[in-house]
């Protein structure tokens, strides 16, 4: 039966996340936007709180760690609302609080999502409790992640990693990094594997932290690997180079993380919509969903357009997560959600600043901050253009050689 | 009219009233006047004017409404049967129920086998062919929104089922979808808000339990031909007259007005919009063909109401505007579903075209500027669909859906038109000529933000 509401079983989780976001993230939101690179110590307590709640199972597996596709079969004909849907809903709430602080949440790194997506059971158990950052991008390689140059060479029971990675979110604060490296550059995409590297590894060095447009509370690191030796059992997933499955293994991570980034954009944009609506109403502009937009004020009409786009993005996000919960292939829907949410996130937050004038532009309010934070969400985990490329290839049935 | 004012060009031919003529303009206007005059025809300078008949393909011709059947009065003026709402399972789900899936199969077949092949000719003729109407009647479309306690085809009336059907039919053709769904809008309204007497009097004819003369042509009319039309501020009025009403005004977007036997007319009663049942034989009705940019197969017309006297039992629903607001919302929902179906037709068509059409030695789909347009159509279309479904599922469960349908209409209007526009653009010159259906979809998709009433789920 068609129903697109927040599932009843997740309502409590969403409420909880909303209260956490409102009462822990918002009060320190501006403080850590100004104090870039300062560690938000308040998050340690919040993380402990979330761990505590997770232990009880009450969250239904919230957080980035919750993207693993459960292997237990659902009953025949039963529709599941599981960890994926719980994750996007709670992440959207937390980003309504503060996107940068959500990204800085201890033990909830994007590397944790990668581990959940591709690690085997033994690794999953061994890495429990780690805070893993994700290192893919290199100075010369962004969207084209198949052409990375960082190498991993087998040497006895170890791999030796050499290369340079940039834009590693939580790269300074995390205690481990999931690194993409190639086993053999001549074998192309199939030879790219991911490795878990502990931060205390002497071959790993955090070179610097970036100064950014937004999400300033989140640390973004440049890391070098110089003859960095890792045990062979820290290669995530299978060490075989299977040229037939190609890039699929490494890329599978993205099917799981793209809805999460869509959720971040949805949450950040809603913060702007909520405040703008309130400010407009105080100024006497009432939003009416029944009367034609063109018969209302231009501000109300703009708001209705933004709200409609936002709701569309949110439902695409929920669809992608719902498909993952029900173990349907969702690569197309994940990219659709990320593309729509990414551009809507920018449009909504920027338009809200415009609607609110210098009040929106000023640091006195958070609107200008959300308009800066939202930009990265249309870039990382695959830019708008990469999502369009994926959607177009799927819809048109074209290979990456045909549609480049 | 003074000479000066007749020299002013504005107010006609799409000219703003601010236009003025200079001497050259006046001379050109005079030459044109002469060229149009009967004089040159009388002296044999032009072929004889074609014989003028009432036609839905030309506007301006007025006739009286159809004589129509006599609906035998039955039942009491107590509240009618009210359909039950579905209960929520509390689970996020995008899977139609078994009943909905079966219905959807039928609607899809009707769309592909009957509507699509007839679409181009019906657009040209500004009328649906009889076999399309017969096929729609055969599968029970007019009774789709009526609960089975009142003779409908579904056990429970469901706005969700109506939405899925409208979407599927529009994939065949929006104009024919509107033509076949229009009588159902009137039946659904009577099922939702009618008194027992109204339900007993009218519904049997729609659900196939009538006197055997077939489903009546019927039209739900809310729109009026004014700028910035707002369905909550109508120009058409209903004045109380004894215990009855007198209606005056002009309605537009009336489906098959000349053939219609029953109208539901929206008018302001004591400053609040209300709905009235008007039989076509009533004194004071005139219908005028109003062919428009698109949705032409629905035979759009205008309905003139001049001192139309109605009895007390003509009022459909309450006088507080509650039934009316729900009617406007359910109608917008149907238009959203039609936009989604038509948008899907565009996507399916351009997908094949850009993969087959070659330029510079390869299919044009291999170019990002083309492929990304297709990707954006797919993305926005799915967002439109999900938002429409969300509103429909809330309506089905009897929950407030004003916000959701308002947003769905916003998105379907804006992105739906964009899809129509890009559909033509992707085919280039081939999109502009009638050899491909994209130009029709372009015209049809403009209707979505313009229409009020007409169809309902």
Overview in brief:
Chain A is α+β, with helices and mostly antiparallel strands.
Task: For the structure shown, list the relevant keywords.
heterodimer, A: 404 residues, Butyryl-Coa Dehydrogenase, subunit A, domain 1, Butyryl-CoA Dehydrogenase, subunit A, domain 2, Butyryl-CoA Dehydrogenase, subunit A, domain 3, 4-stranded antiparallel beta sheet, 3-stranded mixed beta sheet, B: 457 residues, alpha+beta, 10-stranded mixed beta sheet, two-stranded antiparallel ribbon, 13 helices
Question: Topology, pairings included?
Answer:
The complex is a heterodimer of chains A (404) and B (457).
Chain A (H helix, E strand, L loop, with lengths): L10 H24 L7 H14 L27 H15 L1 H5 L6 H9 L2 H6 L5 E4 L15 E5 L2 E12 L6 E7 L9 E7 L5 E6 L10 E12 L16 H35 L15 H28 L5 H25 L1 H5 L5 H7 L10 H13 L8
Parallel strand pairs in A: 1-4
Antiparallel strand pairs in A: 2-3, 3-7, 4-5, 6-7
Chain B lengths: L2 H5 L15 H14 L1 H5 L19 E3 L33 H28 L4 H9 L20 H14 L1 H20 L2 H11 L11 E4 L15 E5 L2 E12 L6 E8 L2 E8 L5 E5 L10 E11 L4 E2 L5 H35 L1 E2 L2 E2 L4 H29 L5 H26 L1 H4 L5 H8 L7 E2 L3
Helix pairs in contact in B: 4-5, 4-6, 5-7, 6-7, 6-9, 6-10, 7-8, 7-9, 9-10, 9-11, 9-13, 10-11, 11-13
């Amino acid at each position: 039966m068609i129903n697109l509401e927040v599932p009843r079983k997740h309502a409590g989780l969403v409420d909880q996340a909303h209260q956490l976001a409102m009462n822990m993230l918002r009060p320190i939101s501006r403080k850590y936007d100004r104090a870039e690179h300062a560690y938000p110590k308040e998050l340690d307590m919040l993380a402990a709180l979330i761990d505590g709640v997770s232990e009880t199972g009450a969250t239904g597996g919230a957080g980035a760690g919750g993207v693993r596709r459960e292997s237990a079969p659902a009953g025949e004909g039963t529709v599941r609302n599981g960890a994926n849907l719980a994750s996007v809903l709670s992440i959207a709430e937390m980003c309504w609080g503060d996107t940068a602080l959500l990204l800085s949440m201890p033990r909830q790194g994007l590397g944790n999502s990668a581990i959940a997506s591709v690690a085997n059971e033994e690794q999953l158990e061994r890495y429990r409790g780690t805070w893993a950052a994700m290192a893919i991008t290199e100075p010369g390689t962004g969207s084209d992640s198949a052409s990375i140059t960082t190498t991993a060479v087998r040497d006895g029971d170890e791999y030796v990693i050499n290369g340079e990675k940039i834009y590693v979110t939580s790269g300074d604060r995390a205690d481990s990094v999931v690194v993409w490296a190639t086993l053999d550059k001549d074998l192309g995409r199939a030879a790219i594997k991911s490795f878990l590297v502990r931060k205390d590894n002497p071959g790993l060095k955090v070179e610097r932290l970036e100064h950014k447009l937004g999400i300033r509370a989140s640390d973004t690191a440049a890391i070098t690997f110089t003859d960095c030796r890792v045990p062979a059992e820290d290669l995530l997933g299978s060490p075989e180079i299977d040229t037939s499955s190609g890039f699929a293994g490494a890329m599978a991570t993205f099917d799981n993380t793209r809805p999460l980034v869509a959720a971040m954009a949805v949450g950040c944009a809603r913060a702007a919509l909520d405040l703008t609506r309130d400010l407009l109403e105080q100024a006497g502009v009432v939003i009416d969903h029944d009367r034609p937009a063109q018969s209302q004020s231009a501000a109300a009409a703009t708001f209705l357009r933004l709200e409609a786009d936002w709701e569309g993005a949110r439902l695409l996000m929920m669809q992608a997560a719902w498909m993952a919960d029900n173990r349907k292939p969702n690569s197309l829907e994940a990219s659709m959600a990320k593309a729509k949410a990414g551009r809507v996130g920018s449009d909504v937050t920027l338009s809200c600043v415009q609607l609110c004038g210098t009040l929106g532009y000023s640091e006195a309010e958070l609107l200008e901050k959300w308009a800066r934070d939202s930009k990265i969400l249309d870039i990382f985990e695959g830019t708008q253009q990469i999502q369009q490329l994926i959607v177009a290839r799927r819809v048109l049935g074209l290979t990456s050689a045909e549609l480049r | 009219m003074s000479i000066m004012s007749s020299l002013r060009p504005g107010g006609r031919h799409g000219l703003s009233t601010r236009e003025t003529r200079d001497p050259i303009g006046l001379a050109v206007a005079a030459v044109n006047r002469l060229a149009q005059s009967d004089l040159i025809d009388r002296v044999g300078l032009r072929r004889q004017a074609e014989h003028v008949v009432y036609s839905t393909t030309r506007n301006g011709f007025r006739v009286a409404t159809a004589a129509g059947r006599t609906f035998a009065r039955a039942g009491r003026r107590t509240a009618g049967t009210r359909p039950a709402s579905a209960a929520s399972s509390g689970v996020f789900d995008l899977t139609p129920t078994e009943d909905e899936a079966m219905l959807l199969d039928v609607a899809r077949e009707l769309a592909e086998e009957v509507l699509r092949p007839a679409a181009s000719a019906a657009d040209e003729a500004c009328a649906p062919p009889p076999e399309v109407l017969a096929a729609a009647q055969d599968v029970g479309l007019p009774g789709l929104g009526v609960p089975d306690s009142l003779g409908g085809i579904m056990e429970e009336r469901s706005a969700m089922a109506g939405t899925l059907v409208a979407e599927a039919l529009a994939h065949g053709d929006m104009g024919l979808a509107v033509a076949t769904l229009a009588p159902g809008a009137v039946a659904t309204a009577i099922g939702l808000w009618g008194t027992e007497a109204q339900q007993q009097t009218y519904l049997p004819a729609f659900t196939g339990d009538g006197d055997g003369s077939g489903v009546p042509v019927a039209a739900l009319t809310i729109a009026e031909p004014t700028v910035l039309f707002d369905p909550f501020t109508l120009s058409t009025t209903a004045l109380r007259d004894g215990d009855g009403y007198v209606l005056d005004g002009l309605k537009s977007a009336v489906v098959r007005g000349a053939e219609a036997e029953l109208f539901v007319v929206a008018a302001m009663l004591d400053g609040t919009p209300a709905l009235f049942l008007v039989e076509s034989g009533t004194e004071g009705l005139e219908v005028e063909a109003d062919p428009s940019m698109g949705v032409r197969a629905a035979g759009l017309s205008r309905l003139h109401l001049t001192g139309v006297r109605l009895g007390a039992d003509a009022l459909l629903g309450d006088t507080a505007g509650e039934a009316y607001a729900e009617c406007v919302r359910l109608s917008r929902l149907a238009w959203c579903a039609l936009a989604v179906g038509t948008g899907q037709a565009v996507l399916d068509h351009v997908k094949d075209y850009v993969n087959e059409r070659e330029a510079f030695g390869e299919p044009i789909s291999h170019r990002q500027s083309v492929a990304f347009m297709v990707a954006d159509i797919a993305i926005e279309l799915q967002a439109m669909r999900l938002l429409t479904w969300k509103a429909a599922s809330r309506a089905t469960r009897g929950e407030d859906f004003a916000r959701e349908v308002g947003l769905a209409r916003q998105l379907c209007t804006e992105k739906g038109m964009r899809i129509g526009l890009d559909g033509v653009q992707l085919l280039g010159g081939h999109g502009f000529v009638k050899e491909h259906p994209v130009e029709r979809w372009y015209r049809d998709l403009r209707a979505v933000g313009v229409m009020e009433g007409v169809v309902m789920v």
